[in-house]
Amino acid sequence: MGQIRFLATAATVWTAATAAFAEVPAVAADITPVHGLVSRVMQGVGTPDLVVPPGASPHSHSMRPSEARALDQADFVFWVGPMLTPWLEGPIATLASDATVIALLDAEATQQLMVRESVQFGLGHDDDHSDDHHDGHDEEHHDDDHDGDHAGEHDKDHDAETAHADEHGHSHEVGSLDPHAWLMAKNGSAWLQVIAEALAAADPENAALYMRNAAEGQAEIATAAAEIATKLDVVAGKPFVVFHDAYQYFETGFGIEAAAAISLSDASDPSPARIAEVRAIVQEMKVRCVLSEPQFNSGLVATVLDGTDAGTAVVDPLGVKLEPGPQFYPQLLTSVGEAIAGCY
Fold first, then answer.
1. Looking at the 3D structure of the chain, how many domains does it have?
2. Residue 280 domain-assigned?
3. Do both 314 and 303 map to the same domain?
4. Is residue 48 within 8 Å of 38, Cβ to Cβ?
5. 142 in a domain, yes or no?
6. Residue 158 domain-assigned?
7. Can you give the pLDDT at residue 303?
8. Domain check: are 215 and 96 in the same one?
9. 8 A C-beta contact, residue 275 and residue 303
């Protein structure tokens, strides 16, 4: 079994490409956003295979034979990386041992953010969760609303949620990377370049087309991002709550901030204490929008909304209802932006 080459920069890819492929490289991508970016680069040349189909959880998917075969036949594998799909690391090592494997989250051009551990975040709340960065309001809030017993119960609930999330392959250790990096337009644009340079080095005959496709894809992302920013003007400075904390990159890219997440991750169920705390945040901050996701328990959102004036909208970080292909990525960003803006 060969050793997987997790290449983080285009320069390394060029060094690794020692010979041109006689045919167009066979390419596999992990999730639909990555598949969309690879499809845009390969448009007019070939079509990549998708390992995790639309609607399947990237954290716990069991590959079908056709998906395993795609890895086995791949010359290139583009994936977010093991922070998102740790279960995929073994199959890649076994089935794609001779492929060039590129973890896009580790690419030098990727803007990386750390996971947010607190129930409440953004809008002035400390984002790095360090005790040295709590202001007086935060200290007063915790003194008034969380006695020692409640704090202990909350810690136990949080630990249980974290353990459950880790068990299902979604890391939430302090200091770990947030893997949802595709939701930042800047990263999508950077990943187009990484993908194009890797394929161009391996397939010189189509190199010019790969690079042109990437440039055109970047322009399409820039256009979509500008339109999204205009639509999100209505959201500026207004708190909203998300189902799980998958949108930090989107928030950072467009200058908006969520107030809290109902669930620690989409691989774990929130504890009663967490739900109660989110409800308190919604009421205290007069949150007007709570975002749900099509794959998960809408009853939890209804519980958080009960007794409040907040509205709700469905947002999907994986774009399950969108058609996979070259235009997928800008459409995904647009769908997320429109869902959030439409809630106000």
1. 2
2. yes
3. yes
4. yes
5. yes
6. yes
7. 87
8. yes
9. yes
**What is the three-class DSSP state of 146?**
coil
CA distance 237 to 303: 25
Identify residue 304 by its one-letter amino acid code.
Answer: V
What is d(CA 15, CA 146) in angstroms, rounded to the nearest whole number? Answer: 56
How many Å apart are CA 344 and CA 94, to the nearest integer?
A: 48
- 241 backbone dihedrals φ, ψ, rounded to 5°: -115, 140
Question: If you search the block for the tokens 């989110």, which residue do you land on?
Answer: 278
Residue tagged 């290449």 (tokens):
7
* Predicted local distance difference test score (pLDDT) of residue 22: 57
CATH number at residue 138: 3.40.50.1980
User: Taken in order 115, 119, 122, 125, is the CA torsion positive or negative?
Assistant: negative
pLDDT along the chain (344 residues), means of 10: 46 43 88 98 98 91 96 98 96 97 98 88 46 36 40 43 43 73 98 98 98 98 98 93 93 94 75 90 92 82 86 93 97 97 92
Amino acid identity, position 236: A
Q: Are residues 149 and 292 in the same domain?
A: yes
Same domain, yes or no: 154 and 46: no
Looking at residue 117, what is its pLDDT? 77
CA distance 172 to 163: 9
What is the value of pTM for the model shown? 0.81
Within-domain flag for 119:
no
Buried b (16+ CB within 10 A) or exposed e, 112-139: ebebbbbbbbbeebbbeeeeeeeeeeee
The Cα-based distances of 43 to 15, 30, 47, 79, 330 in angstroms read 25, 18, 7, 19, 15
Structure tokens at 81: 């990386």
Range of the domain at 11: 5-111+178-227
One domain for residues 159 and 256: yes
pLDDT number for residue 211: 98
> Do 11 and 90 belong together in one domain?
yes
Same domain as 103, residue 247: no
